[in-house]
Amino acid sequence: MPLVSMAPMLRQARANRYGIAAYNMIDFNSARAIIDGAADLDAPVIVQVSVKTVKHWGYAHIATWVRMLANDVATPVALHLDHCTDIDVIRRCIDAGWTSVMFDGSALPFADNLEKSVQVYGLTEAAGVGLEAEIGAIGGVEDDKVVNDDASRLADFDECVKFVAEMPNLAVFAPAIGTAHGFYKGEAKIAYGLLDRITAAISTPIALHGGTGLTDDQFHRCIAAGCGKVNISTMHKRLFIEGFVNLKAERPRLEEPLPFISAQHAAMKADVMTCIRTFGSAGRAAEAAHAA
Q1: How far, in Å, CA of 19 to CA of 229, rounded?
Q2: Helix 257-279 to helix 216-225 angle, to the nearest 10 degrees?
Q3: Which residues are identified as catalytic?
Q4: Taking a C-beta distance cutoff of 8 angstroms, is the pair 78, 4 a contact?
Q5: What is the pLDDT of residues 64-80, one digit of tens each?
Q6: How many alpha carbons fall within 13 Å on the CB side of residue 199?
Q7: d(CA 262, CA 257)
Q8: Which of 80, 93, 111, 218 is within CB 3.0–4.6 Å of 214 for a Cys-Cys bond?
Q9: What is the pLDDT of residues 125-156, one digit of tens each?
Q10: How many Cβ atoms are within 10 Å of 160's Cβ, its own excluded?
Q11: How many CB atoms lie within 10 A of CB 193?
C-alpha cells in the first residue's frame, strides 16, 4: 500500500496500548528486512532514516526504495527522518516524499528548542507530514550525536506540557526518560514516574528512544504508559554486519555474494519480528491502515 503518515497509527497504538516498531534502515536490504518482517506478522511499521544515511544514498533513492517496498505489501509503512537538526534537510525529505520527520532541538535551551520546533511544525502541517520533537538529552550515541552520561538529563515535566501545547497535532513526542542510544552498560534506569505524569497530562503518543537492550518487561511497562513508537537502531546495525560475518565464519570459502545478502536479510528480519511480537503490534495492520 502507499506510504502513510505515522501520526494516525501512533494515536491508535497509544489508545490500544501497543507499540509500533520504528527501525533505522541502512540500505535497500535492511529496509526490505524491516518491511518483510512487518508484512509477515501483519503489523504496521515505521522505517526510519538517519541524516547520515540520507546524505549517503540520496533523498530520492531512499524514498523510491521504501515506496516500492511498501507498495508490495498490505501493511502500513511510514517513512520517517530520525534525529535531524537541519531544517534544510527536513525540507528536502518532505519534498522527496517522507511521511514524517523529526526535528531534534534537544541540545538547545528550552525556549530556542520550542521556537524552532514550532517553526518546523508549521512546515509539516502545511505539507501534511507528521512531526516528532524532543525534550531533554537522551544519552548514548546515535550516528553523529553523542551525549555522555554527565550531559544526559531527564525532561522537565512543566516544559513537556508547555511544549506539546504549542503543537496540538504533533505526531509523536520524545521526552528523555532515562533510556539511552546504543548498548547499555548496565540496566536502563527508566523514570517511570515521570513518564506516567507526562502521559497523564498529554494525549500525544510518546516515542521511546534507546530501545536496543531494554528487557521485555521494560518495553511492556513503557508501552502500557503510552509509548506508541519504539525505536530500534543499534541492534539492526549489529545484525547488518553479523549477517555477513557469521556466514563467512561458517563458510570461509564461500565467494558468491548473494548468500551473504540473504543471511543478512534473515538476521535483521528475525529481530524485527521478535520486536513486533514483544511490542504487541502483530495483527494490527488493518486497524492501523484504517486509522491512517
Answers
A1: 5
A2: 50
A3: 82
A4: yes
A5: 999 999 999 999 999 99
A6: 25
A7: 9
A8: 218
A9: 999 999 999 998 765 444 554 444 444 579 99
A10: 22
A11: 10
